[in-house]
Write a structure and sequence with these properties.
With about 220 residues, the chain is of the alpha/beta class. It has nine helices and eight strands. Helix 1 packs across helix 4 and helix 3 crosses helix 4.
Amino acid sequence: MRAVIFDLDGTLIDSAPDIHAAANRMLAEIGQEALSYDAIRGFIGNGVPVLVERIMRARGLGAEGHAALLDIFMRHYNADPATLTRLYPNVRGVLEGLADGGARLGLCTNKPEGPTREILKIFDLDRLFEVVVGGDTLPVKKPDPAPLQAAAQALGRERSVYVGDSEVDAETAARAALPFALFTEGYRKSPVAELRFDAAFADFTDLPGIVARLAPVPA
């Protein structure tokens, strides 16, 4: 059998609209002007603390206020985490098909574990994932390979594939020595050709075939 481990934001879900809304509610609370959707979308990928750091830098705010702003952002985001968030097309059916076919599914994301589990529950995906490793589950986060290695070890499968959308995911997979399938419609900042991957896809219906090729199971 095989394991398939997924990133979340920009891979399974398009969460940038809700992250953008929470970020601007945070800025409004401290009397700062809103940032554009494209600006906030470009800040996603290295976890919420880094997201807040980038927002602060964009607004010229001193680093000493980071902890307070992080708390404000999380309060707004946790209050409304999935109003605008959507699954990418065909995600649900593909995940269910992989699980029905015997694959064990895991999640490795830099989003904090609490909001991650809440979003999975909202979209009725929590039942499909045996392992969830969030950005605060371990002392380190991606691109450190430890979170992805922990997810793979917990699933107990030597034949594992990581599925993600970004430079951070590509680096994490390389450092963890796992095959990487790149979803090209997410939040990457670089051209596809500049990322390290073993397969790339734009439609989730192509993923089962990619997984079968990258993590073959002996007959």
